[in-house]
Amino acid sequence: xxxxSQHPSRVIxxxxxxxxxxxxxxxxxxxxxxxxxxxxxxxxxxxxTSNEGSKATYEQGVEKDKFLINHASLTLSxxxxxxxHPEDSSFYICSALSALPGFNNEQFFGPGTRLTVL
Amino acid sequence: AQSVTQLDSxxxxxxxxxxxxxxxxxxxxxxxxFWYVQHPNKGLQLLLKYTSAATLVKGINxxxxxxxxxxxxxxxxxxxxxxxxxxxxxxxxxxAAGNKLTFGGGTRVLVKP
Lengths: 118, 113
Description:
The complex is a heterodimer.
Chain A: E1 4-7, E2 10-13, E3 19-25, E4 32-38, E5 44-51, E6 57-58, E7 67-73, E8 76-81, E9 90-97, E10 107-109, E11 113-117
Parallel strand pairs in A: 2-11
Antiparallel strand pairs in A: 1-3, 3-8, 4-5, 4-9, 5-6, 7-8, 9-10, 9-11
Chain B: E1 2-6, E2 10-14, E3 19-21, E4 23-27, E5 32-38, E6 45-50, E7 56-58, E8 64-68, E9 73-78, E10 87-94, E11 101-103, E12 107-112
Parallel strand pairs in B: 2-12
Antiparallel strand pairs in B: 1-4, 3-9, 5-6, 5-10, 7-8, 8-9, 10-11, 10-12
């Protein structure tokens, strides 16, 4: 149980285009989802926190107009990188959390999406 | 504010020997502490977590960690390394409000045959 998927696993796009990444909780309802960014050989940095049906909360320094997050249902959150540039190339990871008993507030992580902007 | 420092960016061990991954944390409140493992092309997997219960925490795959408040440390150990333990390990701290996780810089473990 507690599986989180991401789609696509890899994406290559041209500079100036937009890319959408999906994060799904497959077997549980996620009250909160998180988006992280990981540069090569570096740690994960939290980008934003999203709760179903409300606006995402972005961390300091993260451009909300560039990284659009939608959490339309309890099992799906999307991250759209708008007008992507080469410096946006990175590994994007989502996690999902359920407030239900038994989940112990544990975040379950997706496998990540590698974005390459040419 | 909270932060995590992993003292070693790389650790190399021989198969069958002990593994020690060091982690120090800083937190204004009583923290929850975690160790995650990241294998290539796989999602982060929780090894173990400390949430103010027993200070010695046992996790999966033979790993354990000890919470030492006086030293603000949460070092991860395993008595005997296996080839499958080769991966990136992250020490993580969380303060209850908002469930935000702060990751350490990571330690890459290499296991030699």
